[in-house]
Task: structure prediction
Amino acid sequence: MTNLIETVLLDTCPSDLVQADRVHTSLYTDAKLFDEELDKIFYKTWIWVAHASEIPDNGSYKSTYIGKQPVIVVRDRKKDVHVLLNRCRHRGATVCEHKKGKTNSFVCPYHGWSYALDGSLRGVPHPESYADCLDKGDLPLVSLRVEQYNGMIFATFNDQIEPLVDFLGPARKWIDLFMKQGAGYPVKVSGEHRFRFPGNWKIQLENTTDAYHFPLVHKSFLSSVDEQTLELFDFVQGPGYVEDLGNGHSVMVMIPDLVDLEANLDLPIPERFEALAQELRNEGHEELEVRRIVRAVGGSGFNLNLFPNVACSMAFFRVLQPIAVDETEIHHAVITMDGGPAVANRYRLRLHEHFQGPMGFGTPDDSEAWERVQKGANAGKDLWIMLNRGLAGEKPSDDGLISDVSAETGMRAGYQQWKKMMAVPAAKQGE
Ligand code: FES
Result:
């Protein structure tokens, strides 16, 4: 009988599961690999934890996760940012269960140990029973290494890792371009949608630079917009491109005219923003300012994927949190202009809801596709996931590798970084 499914003989090395043009299905389905990914990727590299606007004041904090480990991102009295393990040093309870807020300290609800904003252990109820066997200096909340770039806060468990600016490399210039959505005002996170889908985290990671799916999966969205917008989003065969930026990062430029939001401000204002422009004029904004704000409201014409857990995607941050091999939580954080015109920020929020919201015309369809990939991956466990689209036309660029907009270059970039990190024995990483 003919064997319908090509059987591959794999040894135990995960790096064999990633080839130049494909990855093995077990990357979506193997629970042991998932645990290994937490150790070798999420607990070894820089992980995005917050945007600076989420913790604006002294004492502002948000709670989140790095891999499966709960952490608190907090700004102390001197405005320094700390990322602390959310785990009491007494018997392990989390010291903060709120998603965000403002505080002077973190007090463990179990026996009342209290910690300062920098994590130091400040007080212990009824200390007399410890006599001299408790040194508070030995038991702070564990503090991670933290670095920031243009408002993006990253943390790592790995003291030996390269500086954040080196890790980001050429991706920095894309972060700078993305932040032009402030239109001269500081960029501010103004809320987020959270949802989970029953699929592996890498399925979502792939999607951010996948132009190929857009006309099909997003038919509902495309049927809900005006002719001009429809034309704008008809980019699969357009002049855009995907670029591998190194270290697993990549960018997909869908609309080259909207890469630099401050360039060519004299181009006509799209019909869908004419009412906004008029309102801004009525509020007394100069014409150049009106054009700058309107352009920013529409969002950047590219998606930037920062390996492994955050994307700057057109007009929002998409953050992914691995829950299990077949479950992932997504946060879609909308960004607005801090102190900018209320009417412009309202437009941003409505645009965000239109595509990314729970009742939106975009994300629910994406989520359905991701779920189907996970479901299908349970069939034919020895098969491979193909990632060879655009490989033939891929060329070296100043920053890495470049190909047409619907190429799977961004996915290949992420998987090559995965391969590199997973090939290193856990004890040697960061040395
Ligand atoms: Fe936190 Fe006991 S577990 S004070």
User: Anything to note?
Assistant: The pocket of FE2/S2 (inorganic) cluster is lined by residues 88, 90-93, 108, 110-113 (CB under 6 Å).
